[in-house]
Amino acid sequence: MQDTHAWSGRFSEPVSELVKKYTASVGFDCRLAPFDIEGSLAHAAMLARAGVLSDEDLAAIRRGMAEILDDIRAGRFAWSLDLEDVHMNIERCLTDKIGDAGKRLHTGRSRNDQVATDIRLWLRAQIDVLGVLVGELQSSLLDLAERHADTVMPGFTHLQVAQPVTFGHHMLAYVEMLARDAERLVDVRKRVNRLPLGAAALAGTTYPIDRHYTAELLGFDDVCHNSLDAVSDRDFAIEFCAAASLVMTHLSRLSEELVLWMSPRVGFIDIADRFCTGSSIMPQKKNPDVPELVRGKSGRVSGHLVGLLMLMKSQPLAYNKDNQEDKEPLFDTVDTLIDTLRIYADMMRGVTVKPEAMRGAVLQGFATATDLADYLVKKGLPFRDSHEVVARAVRHAEQQGVDLADLPLAVLQSFSALVAEDVYTVLTPEGSLAERDHVGGTAPNQVRAQIARWRGVLGK
Ligand code: ARG
Questions:
Q1: Are residues 427 and 353 in the same domain?
Q2: Catalytic one among 12, 16, 158, 314?
Q3: 91 and 126 housed in the same domain
Q4: Which residues line ligand 1 (CB under 6 A)?
Q5: With bands split at pLDDT 50, 70 and 90, how would you rate the model's confidence at 436?
Q6: Same structural domain for residues 372 and 392?
Q7: Is 227 known to be catalytic?
Q8: Atom 12 in ligand 1: which residue has the minimum CA distance?
Q9: Closest Cα to atom 2, ligand 1: which residue?
Q10: Alpha-carbon span 178 to 145, nearest angstrom
């Protein structure tokens, strides 16, 4: 294989070794190869249909590309830094295999519309994988929620015990977040799924191309309607990274909770050993490394989002080499997300809940104080007065070192004559939960209804 550039006719000396390394992207964009070939085959088919390529050339291109794809898949393809990127590596190899037909492939296109097409094809496939993985994590959370639809835990605000909720309800909050994440991915996909090919370098081409036909062959919903925009903007990658950052942000929040809950000081859960590691010095340690890493990697993914925004923000129309820098952050975002979602679905199946510890924390936190206030309101006391009465009762219970439910009836009545024997049903955590019986509330039957709804939506 000769290593002269496609443009060597224009230059009087070869690029320096350092510049070659600096400008080459083949080290990372080689992973676009199957999509580059898919795009080239559609482009060639369109050219043949338009009479720009002969049927023999098209057949040769198809044959050559099939061999190249086999070689790449088998790890036999010799990538060359001298050929700069995935596009020129494949094109040169094709020409080596089939001669002039290979040289005709690039008719009516440029690497600018080619690479924009490749990234969109690649990202579309990744979004589809991610959609499935988000669904699998949701289903893992639903299983956990179902097992703990009745398990009482303290709900927190400001990380202070607030009101009882069920652990199932808590898990369902993340199912909701992930559902919005999945919706966002579906929405981004619509804008990813448009064809840049045909924009050529920036202004379109003089050949009688049929962009809608190419779009149809590649499964794109539409073509990009402005050639300058088609080759230059990477907003679809940026919004994908924004959606990805939100997935990671949600998982980072859950990770923070898992870490807290697993701390011996809290002791709400245990995480299966296979997701934890020990310490090289402290023999007693079992560390929740996976959630900690997810929390850390969320920063890395948000960093990629900001990186791509910065990459784009000062670029004049149309294509600039800056855009070659879009790939590594995008690839790393997808890789991080795929690994994180997979490991998370598995890890949540390895979470053991400790209901006694959760219930104990509810009882220590006067979590049913609001229930007592609501109870008095229902007996006719205005809410502000009731709040005051309960605050005094809580202060008394705290001084006695007992929960509200442990105060004798006579004592409770000393704070308000409206208190009757039935007060104890609302003062227990279970009574408190059962009262919150409306759509979106934490009553166990509502939690079960939501689980059933989600199972229907997800089909699992
Ligand atoms: N490797 C390049 C990229 O990733 C392909 C497009 C190059 N186009 C050009 N005019 N230099 O963006």
A1: no
A2: 158
A3: no
A4: 25, 29, 85, 111-112, 115, 319, 321, 323-324
A5: very high
A6: yes
A7: no
A8: 324
A9: 324
A10: 15
DSSP state of 417: T
pLDDT per residue over 373-416, tens digit each?
999 999 999 999 999 999 999 999 999 999 999 999 999 999 99
The SS3 call for residue 359 is helix
Question: 3-state class of 53 per DSSP?
Answer: coil
Domain end, chosen from 51, 73, 107, is at: 107
Map residue 270 onto helix, strand or coil.
Answer: strand
What's the pTM? 0.95
CA of 297 to the centre of ligand 1 (A): 29
Whether residue 435 is found in the same domain as residue 354: no
Query: The domain spanning residue 30 has which CATH number?
Result: 1.10.275.10
- The verdict on 308 and 201 lying in the same domain is yes
Residue 88 Cα to ligand 1 midpoint, Å, equals 10
Query: Domain check: are 99 and 245 in the same one?
Result: no
Q: Could you tell me how many residues make up the chain? A: 460
Query: Among 314, 299, 312, 307, which residue's Cα sits nearest to residue 330?
Result: 307
The rounded distance, in Å, linking the Cα atoms of 127 and 121 is 10
> Is residue 166 in a domain?
yes
Is the domain of 292 the same as that of 372?
no
When divided into structural domains, the chain yields a total of: 3
Peptide bond into 449 cis (omega under 30): no
The secondary structure of residue 14, as a DSSP letter, is: P
For residue 432, indicate whether it is catalytic. Answer: no
Does one domain contain both 101 and 158? no
Domain containing 395 equals 366-458
Q: How far apart are the first and last CA of the chain?
A: 53
Kindly name the residue from 8, 54, 263, 279 that is annotated as catalytic. 279
